[in-house]
Amino acid sequence: MSTLLKRARVISPRKPLLPLRFPKTGFHVVSDDLALDEEHYEGFHRGHYFPVNIGDVFKSKYQVLGKLGCGETSTVWLARDLEAHSHVTLKVYTRDGNPQDEFQIYQRLSKGNHSHPGYSHVRTALETFTIPRLGGDHTCLVQKPMWESWEDLTYRISDGIFTEELLKGSLKHLFLALDYLHTECQVVHTDIKADNVLQQIKDQSILDDFTKGEMEHPSPRKIVDDMTIYASRQLGVPRYFGRAVLSDFGSAVRGDKKRNHNAGPQIYRAPEVMVKAALSYPVDIWNVGVMVWDLFEDRHLFRGDDPDGKGYSTRAHLAEVISMLGPPPLDLLERGTRTAEFFDKEGKWISEMPVPQGTSLEESEIRLQGRNKEVFLDLMRGMLQWRPEDSEAVARTSLDNSDHRVTSKHTRSKETSYLYWLCFSGIQVNLVLNLTA
User: Fold this and answer.
1) 62-70 and 57-58: which strand pairing?
2) Are strands 311-312 and 305-306 parallel, antiparallel or unpaired?
3) Residues marked as catalytic
4) First CA to last CA across the chain, in angstroms?
5) Which of 1, 14, 309, 350 is deepest in the core (most CB within 10 A)?
6) Model confidence over 129-149: pLDDT tens digits?
7) Are 293 and 300 in contact (CB under 8 A)?
8) Is residue 212 within a helix (H) or strand (E), and if so which, with residue range?
9) For strand 86-93 and strand 127-131, is the pairing parallel, antiparallel, or unpaired?
10) Whose CA is closest to 253, among 243, 242, 261, 244?
11) Which has the closest alpha carbon to 399: 425, 426, 422, 421?
């Protein structure tokens, strides 16, 4: 009988957690003169944000614990799944937002081979649901909570720059994620930047501490037009770190359909994007290359600042790329619908924007010496190629020879394939982070 009871306890699901009761007093009221979070966006003043309150329960199981942040199209909240006894994040979209394309990408991400080594490095969706509201419903995305981004990490590292060891370990995770996206899901991210690479949370105590902090020291807030606006609360620093995870698929597109839109952050745009040639998977590799330069060299490789004083321009960006990589191949230019704005039919630069002189990758890299510098520059040259499809056959051969047998077809060059091979070869890198509080 005792054995049967033990088995019954194992088989029987745990009872749902009871919702927490959060304090209604003891918080700082933010002055009306100080704009807080959503108030910085025009959509708030048009009533586009859903009035989420700490303590609310959605779908009869997700209880809101506190606010993690907000953006132009959504607010993000830490919540408890009362049924699963776990933490989740709720991304509640504005009523004028249309995340259906993003949700379709998440569906594709869920259908890939989950045993692929890159699957665990991609932030997937647990579910989506609709919150009904008079005047227009809101959609909500449920995901596992993550710690801060690589961008946030630069502010916590003592000198703000990724070390060689941190860079190697981080890139291994990122390229595994990209291989899963490209080969298993036929998805191009198009918006890879330090803000969109997060860290898994292995130290669950920081989630409990977040809740405790909200209970003992309620978030500052204010009421505007009968809607409570909360100040965002940061998660604490974990005692140990999880894997890097590629996130935010709001700009992702299918890679099996050619397109030529303005993909990616301006200064991270690949050459095919700038001349409006067809783009696909290789734009992600270019994005990684320029992002790596930012993180490791602590400055942008390309800025695209036009001397007309109006800020970024494609002509200024192209001129800088020519200065670094030399003139582009004619066959790439022949594919671009904007080529005639910058080049003649022979591929000669005709823009009034002068090409900077005396610059090169070698001269621009100042942190490394000797063999380390040589290898790093080889890898950068591999990712930063004019022609996206360069050396794909060599890339496939190198990847097929790697320990993980990853078979990506979407690298920019043989040097990039070596970077994939380096990241996938099973090298163990111990990361020791000197973080500031």
Assistant:
1) antiparallel
2) antiparallel
3) 191
4) 54
5) 350
6) 999 999 899 999 999 999 999
7) yes
8) helix 205-216
9) unpaired
10) 261
11) 421
Type of residue numbered 212: K
The partner residues of 149 in beta bridges, in order of sequence, read 198
Spatial distance between the Cα atoms of 412 and 408, rounded to a whole number of angstroms:
11
pLDDT digits (tens, 9 = 90+) for 215-253: 999 999 999 999 999 999 999 999 988 899 999 999 999
SS3 at position 311: strand
Residue 402 in this model has a pLDDT that exceeds 70 = no
Q: What residue type is 374 in one-letter code?
A: E
- Find the farthest-apart pair of alpha carbons in the chain and give their distance in angstroms, rounded: 88
Q: Please name the residues in contact with 199: beta carbons below 8 A apart, sequence gap of 6 or more.
A: 146, 147, 148, 149, 153, 241, 242, 243, 244, 245
Domains in the chain: ranges and CATH: 15-146+201-247 (3.30.200.20), 258-401+413-432 (1.10.510.10)
Q: Are 68 and 152 spatial neighbours (Cβ–Cβ below 8 Å)?
A: no
Q: Are 118 and 405 in contact (CB under 8 A)?
A: no
DSSP state letter for 240: S
Three-state SS annotation for 178-221: HHHHHHHCCEECCCCCHHHEEEECCCCHHHHHHHHHHHHCCCCE
- The structure tokens listed for 372 are 């380390």
Give the CA angle between residues 87, 241, 251 to the nearest 5°. 70
Q: Are 343 and 333 in contact (CB under 8 A)?
A: yes
| The two three-digit tokens of residue 21, written as one number | 């009761």
Tokens representing 102 are: 């993003």
Distance between CA atoms of residues 150 and 156, nearest Å: 10
Q: Which tokens hold the place of 135?
A: 């005047």
Amino acid at 214: E
Q: What's the whole-number mean pLDDT along residues 271-294?
A: 93
Average of pLDDT values for 424-437? 33
